[in-house]
Amino acid sequence: MCGIIGYVGFKEAYDIIVTGLKQLEYRGYDSAGICTQHSQSLHLVKYKGRVENLQQSKIQGTLGIGHTRWATHGKPSDNNAHPFVDSQNQFSIVHNGIIENYLELKEELRKDHTQFTSDTDSEVIVHLIAKYYEGDLRDAVLKTTKRLQGSYAFCVIDKNHKEIIGARNGSPLIIGVGKNENFFASDVSAVIEYTKEVIYLNDFEIAKITKNFIDIIDFEGNNKPLAIQEVEWDIEQAQKQGYKHFMIKEIMEQPKVVENQLKVQFDFGSKPKTVHIVACGGAGFAGVLGEYLIEEISKIPTKFYHGSEFRYRKPILHEDDLVVAISQSGETADTLAAIRKAKESNTKTLAIINVVGSTIARESDDVIYTRAGPEISVASTKAFLAQILSMYQLAYALKNEVFTFQDYKEIIEQLLQLDEQIKQLAEKYFKYQNFIYIGRNRNYAIALEGALKLKEIAYIHAEAYPSGELKHGPLALVSEDMPTFAICPQDEFYEKNFSNIQEVKARNGRVISLATEGDEKINLISDDVIYIPKVDSILYPLLETVPLHLFAYHIANFRENDIDKPRNLAKSVTVE
Ligand code: AGP
């Protein structure tokens, strides 16, 4: 994870880097730092904590690099914060990724009397560059990359030259192409305020940027073309626009998201024999829903795998199968590894991705972009909705039909009006420490999502079960201190769900039911009911996420949590 940025141009690098790091904070936020070059020396500030801590110590220079960290090696501290400098204060680096052979490299460098100032894996990079430097920074970087194992995107500057070198192997790095200024960044959001023209670096590439020059070579030293692309969105979309948090802003944007997503075309030449869906976290629950839907709608055997499990369980893949990866960021390391594993078996891969130009999108045979727009909040909401909608589109496309849902946008608008009611409900429930979520069949996928959101942003222990599983163990947990959130729309499973809720009530459990408008009977067994409009049975999951996300949001807000940047997490998980 971690966010990196580099600037070379004519403006104060510090200002641009701080602004860019704020956009990148979703990638990690336990420490931050900047190094600038000014008067032929390097100037460094770095602190444990948020980017805003940097505001106390402005440093000069029109060239610099910055970093916001999500700790992997070494706890969050001033010393472990990036950038790192070499012993002579001549070079400085920022790194995103993991250097797997750092212990051996550290041992080797220590024998050369190198002093380390941190517990990180990243620091070896700057000392290797110092070791290999013979007057050309890019040559030193090229030699350094030959020594590194693991994944990385890093940027390096030296105290004398007005240039930044960036290298990529397994972690994202883009170049922002400006006028008399150029940028490096982990993603487009950090540079979109200054330019809409970007180059997505590929793995095994090294780029050199000055204020009016860009040059890319591969790790063998061959020149590479500059493939400049135009970014489709703008800075307003990545700002809060008056909302207290990005999460609630992104929830409120969903009518537009579904309108755009419904226009996306899914086409398939031939039917796969088996569909394998791979994804992590919340995106994985979209995958669980996809598993139910594809089998039900297109009758193709479908299996869901957690991204982190896929390659280790030796999946049985055939050339006429299809591996589908779902990811908002398109950078999730485990999902990416699954795509690479599928390619080893010559199995066709399809990526359903939100971030245009991301690594999984580029490495898959086919890509379909979800149309959620930039999502900043670590807790995914609008991208999740676009992902589950894409599962319907995929399931119907595999049957050679087009999925349609008339009035869906209006229904989402109507669901958003539940905000005030759900806020009041959250006020009633925000002090509970444990929750159970239940749902049957496709609705179970949404129960999983509801529980994850409560864990992620409210720090409340929440577990999700298929409703019928409750009596096989979890029912022992039920008491008046552990409420159950029951997803119980009027679908073909209604009566079964109803009985399961009764089992909870019979044990003094409190119940919040998510039910269909007009269902009065559910009041008999629920403490509170949230009503959603009546639709075809199969469509209910598309309505259920809005109330569940609002519930988690308001609970977290009453608990005064840092909703957009929950503790210990990062949005883009680029490590295993
Ligand atoms: C969702 O709210 C979480 N932030 C997380 O589980 C996320 O869905 C997961 O890390 C996958 O991310 P991706 O969609 O970018 O691959």
List the helices and strands and how they pair.
Elements: E1 3-8, H1 13-24, E2 31-38, E3 41-48, E4 63-69, E5 84-85, E6 91-99, H2 102-111, H3 123-132, H4 137-145, E7 150-158, E8 164-169, E9 174-177, E10 182-185, E11 197-200, E12 205-210, E13 213-218, E14 223-224, E15 229-230, H5 246-252, H6 254-261, E16 275-279, H7 281-298, E17 302-306, H8 307-310, E18 322-327, H9 333-344, E19 348-353, H10 359-363, E20 366-369, H11 382-397, H12 408-416, H13 419-429, E21 434-439, H14 442-458, E22 461-466, E23 484-487, H15 494-505, E24 511-516, E25 528-532, H16 541-558
Helix pairs in contact: 3-4, 6-11, 6-12, 7-11, 7-14, 13-16, 14-16
Bound molecules: 2-deoxy-2-amino glucitol-6-phosphate.
2-deoxy-2-amino glucitol-6-phosphate (AGP) binds at residues 280-283, 327-329, 332, 335, 378-380, 456, 572-573.
